[in-house]
Specification:
Blueprint lengths: L1 H37 L6 E2 L13 E4 L3 H6 L6 E2 L18 E4 L4 H12 L5 E4 L2 H7 L5 H11 L1
Parallel strand pairs: 1-5, 2-3, 2-4, 4-5
């Protein structure tokens, strides 16, 4: 009888957990669907050319790459929160100022940015093209360079 009770409890816990997991996934999917219904086109993407150099000081900048990449080089003033850890470390991320998030090319930071925006961080901007494109466009001077090109045309 004791073995039968143990088996019954094991089955109940196993299937109960699977049901709870399915419910949690359904809730998450519903939240994402609701977000996608109302998000602005581009989902918070910003180009390096759109950011005047003086604006970087007003932002929280998150380098979403791993620690080794961050240590090799990053946007001045950036903090390092690996992309898959942004929700776990969201207590470090304000909702009352612009947050710029980037990785090498923009793909991982787009995922982290999406997660943050679904979690209610409408102030998050994802750097299109990531760190590599930011450097190629002149880094902090990307905005000034773009304006100079427009003036010369």
């Amino acid at each position: 009888m004791k073995q039968l009770l143990t088996i019954f409890l094991s089955v109940t816990i196993t299937f109960g957990s699977a049901s709870a997991l399915a419910d949690n996934k359904a809730i998450a999917v519903d939240e994402m669907a609701g977000y996608l219904d109302f998000v602005d086109y581009g989902g918070g993407i910003i180009f390096a050319e759109q950011i005047p150099a003086e604006e970087y000081k007003k932002m929280l900048i998150i380098d979403a790459r791993d620690r080794a990449q961050f240590e090799k080089g990053h946007i001045p003033g950036a903090i390092n929160i690996e992309w898959r850890r942004v929700l776990a470390q969201k207590n470090q991320i304000p909702k009352d100022k612009t947050v710029l998030i980037y990785c090498n090319t923009g793909s991982l930071s787009a995922q982290a940015g999406f997660a943050l925006r679904v979690a209610g961080y409408e102030n998050v901007r994802i750097l299109q093209g990531g760190f590599e494109e930011w450097k190629a466009k002149g880094g902090l001077d990307a905005n000034k360079n773009a304006l100079r090109r427009q003036t010369n045309n």
